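Inverse folding, one chain.
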């Protein structure tokens, strides 16, 4: 599976961006796609995840209420709609796929669980 992230850019605080992750190759229902981010000098952190079948979504506390993850199976794409952006959201955002379904939500927050990664897209939020 190859992943291509896009949609990053520069936005003012309070603004919105929509990130997309296009997957090429087979994406069975047993896959889950996640978004992570890494700010300068910080560790990569989980943002959100969505199972490729009609399953639940998962969010980091920092994303709840502001970000929405969704999938378009016809286009093999997962999107991350980010609203009410804050300067602390500034980071490189990565999409990733893990070949596993589990009811353990903590599993999806762990970056080392993921099998495939996209190249990242930069989001900069100015104050």
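Residues assigned per position:
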């Amino acid at each position: 599976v190859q992943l291509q992230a896009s949609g990053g850019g520069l936005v003012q605080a309070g603004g919105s961006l929509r990130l997309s992750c296009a997957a090429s190759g087979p994406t069975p229902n047993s896959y889950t796609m996640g978004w992570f981010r890494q700010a300068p000098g910080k560790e990569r952190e989980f943002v959100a995840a969505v199972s490729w079948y009609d399953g639940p979504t998962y969010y980091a506390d920092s994303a709840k209420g502001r970000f929405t993850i969704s999938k378009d199976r016809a286009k093999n794409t997962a999107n991350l709609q980010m609203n009410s952006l804050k300067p602390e959201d500034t980071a490189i955002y990565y999409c990733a796929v893990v070949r596993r379904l589990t009811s353990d939500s903590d599993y999806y927050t762990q970056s080392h669980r993921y099998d495939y990664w996209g190249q990242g897209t930069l989001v900069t939020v100015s104050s």
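The chain has a mean pLDDT of 94. The first strand starts at residue 2 and ends at 6.
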